Amino acid sequence: MWVTAPKALDAPHVPPRILGPAYRTATIGILLVVTLVAFEGMSVGVVMPGVAHDLDALDLYGLSFSAFLIASLFANVVAGLWADRRGYPAPFVAGLVLFVLGMGLAGAAQSAVMFLGARAVQGLGAGASFVALLVMIARVYPAEMRPKAIAAVSAAWVVPSMVGPAVAGFVAEQWGWRYVFYGIIPLVVPALVMLVPALRRPSSSGEAPSDGPRSRPLAMTLAAAATSGGGGALLHGVDRLHVDPVPGAVETLAGLGFLIYGLYRLLPPGGLRFARGLPTTVLMRGFFSAAFFGVNSFIPLALQEVKSFDPKEAGIALTAGALGWSAGSWLQSRWAVEPYRRIRLGAAGVTVAILISLLSVLPGMTGWVAAPAWIVAGFGMGLGMATISVTALKQSPANEQGANSAALSVTDMLGAAVAIGAAGALVNVIGHAPAEIATGFVVICLLMAAIGLSATVLAGRIR
User: What CA–CA distance (Å, rounded) separates 333 from 389?
Assistant: First the structure.
């Protein structure tokens, strides 16, 4: 009787893992890059009082964030176009170089103008590297691994969200705010070294350079400029409406016109009319960001001014949201449910959480209601946003993954920026007394809940 050796085909299939031998170095490098960018984002707000004091620029709060945002919008599109035409390594490395340069310039800034320029350079770097990173995930990892890779990217924001403000505050107190920026620079080197194999690895998708309407350098650069400039004008005009209504309205309408023109060019065909499939998938990212961040940005203000929380207590709700976000993102990578159902459930969770959080400013209610509510909101964001990213990459032709990754980032940032800008203008109109802030927060929650409800209804068009 002959005994045959077991064939390789008889062995059970072991699915590849993002931390398995073949992908471990690339995964750790990606997570380190995301962690550094996240830490910078979590730290700027903490050190801004010191920056404003040293540079004699009290108006830096809004301008510093706007400079970062507008530059990121522009870099999103250029890096996406670059990745589709030439591959992801060059825009990724260029983005990291610009990010490091911006950190160094911010630490060395001797004037408000120099600091604002540094923030713009940081935005260019962060925007370019993040879009290229999404394309890297699409082309380095097999399709079945991408949900876990996206979940890991979302999880990389948790630690910076929890400890970033505290660490930045400690560093600023001990050595000065400049070292918060300087301290991140050396950490970029090991991240880049870990990603060298992924940057050298040929893509397995076999894509050809894109030759569609969203691959034309001049047209796309103009569209990116129109979107960035229009978004900036829109935000500035909305903020001026309560002070100078006519010029503010003119600037708002002009910004809106440029914004619509830019989005028409940047979004997948049919995006502005919510065509089924990829166009709605990309737009859904903006709905989620608008609903969540439109409230998230005002929770600390509401709790401190209405319920007399100190900054540390008010920050607990935001930390809770980060934990929920990580949990939702983890679940989407393991839950075998149709993507549109996960996105619909995520949008519904965000909507319900927003409505619960408005209770936190009502008389007789404890402000701590916001903490569990924001765990639910974060969970909905993690479940929905990660699923949107994975679905958009799956729906994209290989040679348009850069353009569509850029479109995701553009709608994400615009959704958050417009919602926050409109909500801030609303607070300015209603007033800054505690009772008026409470009223403004309730109105903001109702408006953002309406956006979340719209996302819940529109989720079916992702199919």
Answer: 12
The CA distances from residue 143 to 138, 333, 395, 406, in Å, are 7, 12, 11, 19
| Predicted TM-score of the model (pTM) | 0.74
Say if 22-200 and 273-463 have the same CATH topology. yes
Q: How far is the C-alpha of 42 from the C-alpha of 36, rounded, in Å? A: 10
Helices (H), ranges, 57-157: 60-86, 89-108, 112-140, 146-155
Class at the top of the CATH hierarchy for domain 22-200: mainly alpha
Per-residue pLDDT tens digits for 257-308: 988 888 888 788 887 888 888 889 999 999 999 999 888 878 877 887 888 8
Q: Which CATH architecture fits 273-463?
A: Up-down Bundle (1.20)
DSSP state of 367: G
Which residues have C-beta within 8 Å of that of residue 463, sequence separation ≥ 6?
A: 276, 277, 338, 340
End-to-end CA distance of the chain: 56
- Per-residue pLDDT reduced to its tens digit, 1-26: 444 444 445 545 556 677 777 777 87
The residues spanned by each domain of the chain are 22-200, 215-267, 273-463
Sign of the alpha-carbon torsion through 361, 363, 368, 371: negative
pLDDT at 12: 53
Of 353, 238, 226, 262, which is closest to residue 299 (Cα–Cα)? 353
